[in-house]
Amino acid sequence: MNLAICPCRQTASTQPSYAECCQPYVEGAAKAPSAEALMRSRYSAFAVGAIDYLVETVAPEARGDMDKASLTAWSKESHWGGLDIAETVDGQPGDATGIVEFVAHFSRNGKRETHVERSTFRFDAPQCRWFFVDGEKPRGKTVVKGAQAGRNDPCPCGSGKKYKKCCGAAAA
């Protein structure tokens, strides 16, 4: 397949061709060197319909609930719009595990959608390759704006009561 821009990078600033980016991994000519490279190649595999690659890159112990027919249908029925990597933790050569948080963009039935996931990857030394282990929806980030009132501090709402007896009681 000759794609001018690799599916995994259509929303990124660098846009190599599929042949320069993910195709060698998807077609088995090379092994993904990092968890992020495996994640990108798995996204591209969805875009080009390489379902066997998706199955092969899942850790053997996690393949039990895979449904190739559903994967194939999702791949074919969707228009793939790019992949954004939000965060990576480890997952480099020499690491045993890695985490990749991503946003996959696609359209299905004319409706734009995103799939947000925090995926875990494991490096298998005997096979010298990365595997996808599992994924989950990322937890929201806690946002703290300014100093927080302590239990016995005056309530910041100005009531004159202790925080624990006023707004702190509502939060508990």
Can you give a write-up of this model?
- This protein is an alpha+beta fold and about 170 residues long.
- The protein is about 25% helix and about 25% strand.
- It contains five helices and four strands, in the order H-H-H-H-E-E-E-E-H.
- The protein has helices spanning about 25, 35-50, 50-55, 70-75, 165-170, and strands spanning about 80-90, 95-110, 110-125, 130-135.
- A four-stranded antiparallel β-sheet has the order 1-2-3-4.
- A hairpin with a 2-residue loop joins strand 2 (about 95-110) and strand 3.
- It is elongated and about 70 Å long.
- The N and C termini lie far apart (about 55 Å).
Number of strand segments:
4
Report the C-alpha radius of gyration, rounded: 22 Å
Low-confidence runs of at least 5 consecutive residues: none
Main structural class: alpha+beta
Question: Which short descriptors sum up this protein?
Answer:
27% strand, single chain, 4-stranded antiparallel beta sheet, 5 helices
What is the element layout, followed by pairings?
Blueprint: H1 23-26, H2 35-48, H3 51-56, H4 68-77, E1 78-90, E2 97-108, E3 111-124, E4 129-136, H5 167-171
Antiparallel strand pairs: 1-2, 2-3, 3-4
Briefly summarize what is shown.
The chain has 172 residues and is α+β, with helices and mostly antiparallel strands.
